Automatic annotation (TrEMBL):
Keyword Transmembrane recorded: no
PROSITE patterns noted in UniProt: PROKAR_LIPOPROTEIN
Record domain Spore germination GerAC-like C-terminal: where: 222-375
Name assigned to this protein: Ger(X)C family spore germination protein
Amino acid sequence: MKWVQNKKGYLLPVLLAIFILTGCWDSNETERMVYVQGVGIDYKNGKYTVYAQIVNTSTTAKTESMGGPSPAKIVVGHASGNTLNQAMFNLYSSSQRRLFWGHLSYIVLTEETLKQTSIQATIDQFDRYRETRYSIHFYATKDPLSEILKSLPPLEMTTYLSRLGDPQAAYEQRSVIRPLNLRELLIALNEPPHEAVIPYIRLAKETWETETKPIPIIEFAGAALLTRDGIKKIIPFQQFKGLRWLNSDLQREEITLTNDLSDVSLVVTNLKIKKKPIITGKTVKFQLSLDATATLAEILKTEPLPKIEREAEKLLKTQIHDTYLTGLQNNIDIYRLSEDVYRKNMKAWKRLEQNGKIPLKDNSLQKIKVRMKIIHGEKQKMKPTL
């Protein structure tokens, strides 16, 4: 009898271990799911259309194991509905496997969608879903979404390394416009001035080509100015050049000086920005101070460095002021000057704000001070190579 009791004592831990090990029975195996990397959203005739880009990861894995190239083949599906959620469920009807949204990298919204609906429906849909993350990047376009989502990076690179899926890599080489993810978009729309700037993209069909034909490639062409209610304006790059110089995250950007100079080219690599609101009664003026460092990338004949720096300062100052006026014409606080009052002087903010931002005029930007410092000339000295 004592031996039987001891045997039961040994069996108890074994039975408990069996129950613990059953915790993974409801999990999905990796190769049995379909991974959504990109999403496009269109709105026409009162209906949403959702485009989903799925990546064939199993093909990539098999190709790599064989030692050959690793193309990431994609498939784009689409479905429509009266609401965004209904459109997504209609897409599920034709999906052969479960769609996994945990690797969603970006969302592209058409210009028509942003004009006719607010961005709130998109944010609400993807912010509520448990699989999605706040690192999703947002873009706007007027090109067909099916073409945008079927555009592949050159040289058979994986789509995870595309301009849309991984914008930071290209941004570090040229910082035209700062990528914006879901977390940053929520902050921009929830805090003064309740406006956001997202990259505007298009397909460049003649820029790159293989030995047989041109290949369409995504390029950043402008900026979409948004509020909670929808789009305010699409502006091309030529009209928001000054926005680069009020971006503390700038990595690397080029300027060419032609006035009284022989096509001198500089690469700006570092910025220190200060915004100072000056409040007098019911009037708010702003002073901007910008310290920039640059390298001398190209110079065709010997020029005095102080002259080059002065010309660069004039150019940056002009671009900053022109972009400010462009934002003002579209009722957009493009440099988020209202936020500085909100954070630095709450009493003044409560007294002066109108509809969540400080009213701005042409002369509200009282002073722009730019200081340019050329630190070196890349591999060569501060003079022409020849």
